[in-house]
Please model this.
Amino acid sequence: MIVVLRRNSPLSKREELILRLKALGITTHISQGEQNTVIGLVGDTSKVDPDDLMALPYVEKVQRVSEPFKLANRQFHTADTIVDISGVKIGGGSFTVIAGPCSVETEEQIVYTAKRVKAAGGKLLRGGAFKPRTSPYAFRGLKNEGIKLLEIAKKETGLPIVTELMSVEHLEFFDNVDVIQIGARNMQNFEMLTEIGKQKKPVLLKRGLANTIEEWLMSAEYIMASGNENVILCERGVRTFETALRNTYDLACIPFMQSLTHLPIIADPSHASGKSSLIPALSKATVAVGASGIMIEVHPTPEKALCDGAQSIDCDTFDRVMTDIKKYAEIEGKTV
Ligand code: PEP
Ligand code: MN
Model:
């Protein structure tokens, strides 16, 4: 980080700032120009808030030269992180498919879907039990009963299960859940991120509806900073001026993020587009762009789904999507 002082700022103020930074463990390098004084900060600047420095009347400019995230940063951890979920790996040379309904509805629905997902080559079963819904009058999931139904589907198929956590108070129901999903709406629920960082289960951290890449990585940093390094990132579309589709699928962020972080990144074309007819094309694009996996909403009868039917594909379509994914993954040199 570099701090430029205003012209003619008193020497005493400069000394005050140096002492303040020293207290944070930062050493400083002074470069005295003809017009301005430039202070270079050396050390772990993650504790230094540039806005705090900008608030000082004698500071003209503050510029970061390194990212504020450390544990998630590829600079300090060059190898890809591979998250192991009961033997299923996300990251490295694999392309992992997570599929299942938006919400768990009945035992028959989730067990049937799980069997079809497994038969087609999916490696993890998704299904919402605690559902974030815009309307309080909409179906908000079967809650802990839904998790029990996911456990039945897991027993029948052997597929590890992924489901969303909406409150840390519900963690007691998550003992047999393999991956904790943090949804878009909770991406910046910092207390929750800190709490789930204290346990070791892998976390699927979705990107917030309107969050920047840096904010998203800082949320991953929260989980890692409290002790859990098993974080998988999931792009799920962001809000833009475009309203024709549910969201705008930010596929460009995937290879870009891979340069910034060692954490695996997957993507969810279902929430990104909101439209089932687009899933076959977007799935191929997701593999082609280099993602480590994909999460797709699949329902035996999408027209009857209690949540997100318009973006859910049926099981036969999923079979065809998997055939394409396998071909595209081969080109990428990845195994599905
Ligand atoms: C979901 O996966 O069902 C979901 C609610 O996703 P998001 O948090 O991305 O909206
Ligand atoms: Mn959904």
Summary: The pocket of manganese (II) ion (ligand 2) is lined by residues 102, 271, 297, 307-308 (CB under 6 Å). Residues 83-331 form a domain with the TIM Barrel fold (CATH 3.20.20.70).
